[in-house]
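Weekly structure sync, notes
Attendees: PL (lead), two postdocs, one rotation student
Agenda item 3: pending single-chain targets
PL asked that the sequence for the first pending target be pasted directly into the notes so everyone works from the same version. It is reproduced below exactly as submitted, 183 residues in total.
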Amino acid sequence: MANTGWTLGGTAINVNDGGIIAWTNVNNVLVDTTSSSTATTTSSFDDTQILRVTNFGFAIPSDATINGVMFKFRRRSSTANDVRDDTIQLVLSGTPVGANKATASFWPSTNSTPEYGGAADTWTWAGISVANINNSAFGINIKAFDDASGTDTLNIEAVWLDIYYTPVGGGAVSSSKSMMMML
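Predicted structure, written out during the meeting:
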């Protein structure tokens, strides 16, 4: 099995899905720095709008089989134990696909980088394919929910995806980054 390695997205937008709080500075999640995209809640039960990250630039061989998708993001909240995931879901051309992997765990007040999915986890997406994964409109939707009173500032610093696949013939192949180092 091969994988793409952790890859940052190329496009980030705030999607107003009816959530109360918009994400600002969304392009900050496209680079691995300490700059953040932020959303600030003002009362209990505020939810954010969707932070959508797409255009990961995957170039998986068209005859490969997708085995799994892993997602991680560096996040924190100004107050520990107030904010939870609402939506962590793959998206293709603006349409959510597969299972929502949001967890009930709280966002901490210091940076953490939780991982979702796995090398053999297709997120129950029946239509998963190389063509969909390589599509620039493929990515991830992130939405959070503040279930405590008061103001909380949510921060997301970076968003990554890693795709696991089996090349034709099923042989082990190094990721494209490893192959380039060998040349």
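Discussion points:
- The two ends are 20 Å apart (CA to CA).
- The longest strand covers residues 152-166.
Action: rotation student to compare against the earlier draft before next sync.
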